[in-house]
Every structure is written in C-alpha cells, then in structure tokens.
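Write out this protein's structure.
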Amino acid sequence: MRIGSGLVIACVLGGVLWTLLGEGEEGAGEAAVVAPVDVPKESPIEAELATPEARRPAAPVPVEARPDEPPEVAESVPPGDGLPLAGRVVMVDGRGLPMVDVHAPALDLRALTSASGEFRIEGLEPGEVELEVGSSRSGTGDGYEIVGRRTFRAGDEAVELVVRACLLRVRAADESGAPVAFNSVEVTDVGDDGYLSSILSWSSGGGAQFADLPVPVDRNLRARVQGAAGSFAGLVHTPVAGGAVEVVLEVDSPSMATLELALGGPLDRVIGARLDVSLVNLDRDDRIDQSDALSERILIPGLTTGLHTLEVSVAQPQGTRQSQIFALVGAPAEIEVTGTGRIPIALELVPGGELELVLSADLDLLPREMLPVVVQVEVRPEGRSEALDLRWTGWHGGGAVSRPTIGGGWVADRSLPPGRYDVRVQAEGFRPSQTTASVVGGQACKVAIELLRE
C-alpha cells in the first residue's frame, strides 16, 4: 500500500512538470515565471529504504603510520652537516689555476685551489650557490674575471669555473745565465697612477727552481725573489687574453733600477753578521726589505722611480763582544730613482756601539691590570726625521720585541754607527720623555729614563 501511494505521487509530479514544459514551448515569446518549489533533500521512499547505518556520517579511513620514512623533500641534509660543492678553477686555455680563493659570498664560505686548480667547499644548504674567485691574499676580485657560468647547485662535485687570469711562472738566473734557487717571491702591481699594490707573496720551505703564481691580466707587474744567492727582480706585462706566461728574473735587472752597495772595511773580523737594508718609496706605496750575508758587493734590484728613504745596518748575533761589534757609515738618508740602471753607494764598516735602555717608573700607583706597562721607543740619528726600525731584547731573556716594557734593561737588536741619537719614550698614563745618547764605537751606550705620571 505504501508503494502504491508513492507511485501516485510520482505520476502527479510528472504531470505537473510535463504541463509546465509544454506551456513553455507554446509561449516561447512570453517570459515564463516559475514559482520556487521546495524539494526535500531526501524523498520519503529514500528515507524509508535507508538503514540507520547508511545514514551515519562516514568514518575516517585509518592510515598506517610509518615512523621510519620521513616526509619526502627535494633534498635531504642531515642535521649539522651540509652539501659539498667541488670542482676545478681553470684558465681560458683549460689549465688549472692554483692558489686562488673560491668564495661563496652569500654564505661566507671559501676554499683554496690546489696545484691543479681543484677546490672543495663543505657545509652548503640545498639550492643555488654563486661563486667568486680572487687571489689568496684577499679572496675577492683582484682582476680575476669569471667567464661564463658562476652559479651552481649545492651537491655538484664536477664544477668548472673558467677564469680569465694568467699563470705566471717565475724563474731566476745569475749573471752567467745559470738558474738559481730561491725561497720567496713577491709580486707587485706597478700602477700608472703612482700607487703600488702587492698582488701576492709566496715562500717555499727550501730552494725552489720555479714558482707558478696566479696573477690578473693586462697588468704591469714587478716580481722579486730572494734566496741564498741574493735577490732577483724584473718586470712583466700580463696579456689581456690570459693564459700562461713566464719571466726570468736577473740579479741586475735591466728594466728597473738596482741599488749597488760596495762595502769596505774589516769584513773578515765580523762574525755571523748580516746586512739589513730597508728602502721605502715616499712617492708610491712600496717598500723593499732585504737581508744578506756581508760581502764586498750587494745588489738590490727592483727599485721603482721616486724618492726613497734608505736604512742600512749590521745585525750581529746576541752576545757578540764589544770589540767585535761593527756598523756601517756612508749611507745617505734618501736616494732618488729617476730611471733604470745601477745606483752605486759606498759604505764603510767601522766599530759600532750598542744602545742599552733602562726604563723605570713609579708603578705603585698603577692598577694591577695595567702591568706590565708597554712603551714606545723612537731612536733617530740627530738631525734626521725618520726613526730607526729597531727592536729590543730584554736583559733577562725573551725574544726581540718592537715595544719593550718598563723595568729591567733593553738592548737594541743591532749595533749603531758612532754619533748622537735622539731617544724618545712614550707610555699611556705617563709624560713623554726625551733625551740624547752618544754612541761610541766599541762601547755600550746606556740610557736611563725615568717616566713620570701625568
């Protein structure tokens, strides 16, 4: 009976819908207005046929947990570790570039290339990494230009950075042309604007026959090497295209000025001494320091044009007797270099004297954390404005220092030529003190200075 009633209702609804559709076709030119009809979401038949279980909301489908499988990511990095980035730095001709600094500036990570140009950076986060290449001196720029791709993905271990640079092979030859070994190399950029800048310094544990050094392109460079056979220097212009270039340095550079020191006097009476020479170019940012065993003639090549201050001294082993202490006289305070060739200077070895310094002060009023008090000592030959580059050794042990402390005695690290010297001492919290010392050959000149509180 319930099924029959449902069929009747269905037939009635169907007739109503048919009538409405038919009228719509006959009066197509008139707007048909249909009143809204509330249609139940669930018909009486569906409501009667649906079981209570089917009408309940669906339960969530259980998902089996797998704790041993972490969520999938693009790249997984273990905590505390990172991805590597490795490869080679090569020049435009494909040759590996040694001793250059590969730098990831955004992460402040860097690595130095090996002799074949290989590098490896560790500890990178996933993603793209931009690299820079520079010299081992500063690690940025310095005229090295990356040609082509510079951005790589962390985890890549076959990177190739192509750089426009030069590989400078440095050799040295004596006056006969025979190769000589050396211990250190200094390369300086000789700029046209009067400013000299150091490109790099290199040293070996022993005597090297050659050195391969990365340098920028299109530069005028001065190379100086030093070894047991002396110093050698020369100029080289690096090509714009980059690649390998070689320079043979000479003991008497034809392209630069060479200082020739002729030493006279009793050289055979000096035991275990060396000659220290310092040249400072006042027109350019350039300095040459050279140390050689005493001999009748010493050549110092590689001087650039301009006005230089000159300081020449004899350094002798600690404990040398006063009768064996010598110093050099005849060196001018300044020399001017106007071109190439040799600049001869005659020096004479004479008995020298030691300068001993005794510093004292009332330290009872100073806080304990201020002890010991470090002082700055300047010693100038009378009438000269430049102070000597002296170091001091304490009487009671300790190596040479540039700034001694109050208390005890201090001895200059080398003998001084006879003459008068101005001695000035400064220390924080004390008044500056100045006195004059007279050095006599073969004697020790003792200077006692008492510092007073400000």
